[in-house]
Amino acid sequence: MRRRFGFLPSNASRSFKLWASMPVACSFATLIALGTVIPNDTTAAADQQRDGALSDVIAQRGVASNPMADYRLGVRDRVRVQVFEWRPSRDEVYSWNALNQVYTVDPAGKISMPLVGVVNAAGYTTEELGMIISRQLMHRLGLATQPDTTVEVTDFRPIYITGAVEKSGEYPFAAGMNVLQGVSLGGGLFRNSALAGLRLEREFVSTVGSYQALEQERQRLLARKARLDAELSGADRIAFPAELQTVSAPQAIESTSSVMAKEQSVFDLRRRANETQLIALDQLQGSLEQEVKTLDMRVDSQQKQIDLLRSEYDGIKRLSDKGLSTAPRVLGLQRNLAELEGEKLRIESDRTRAEQEVSRTKISRIEYQNKRDNDLTVELQTTEARLQQIDQEATVNQRLLAETKSQAIASPLHLVTTGGTTPDGSASLEPKIHYTIVRQVSGGGVLNIDATEDTLLQPGDTVKVDMTMPATSKDSMSLDAVLRSQKPAIQERSVQTTPISAPPSMVPSTVFPAPDHASLEPVRADVLRPD
Question: pTM of this prediction?
Answer without folding.
Answer: 0.44
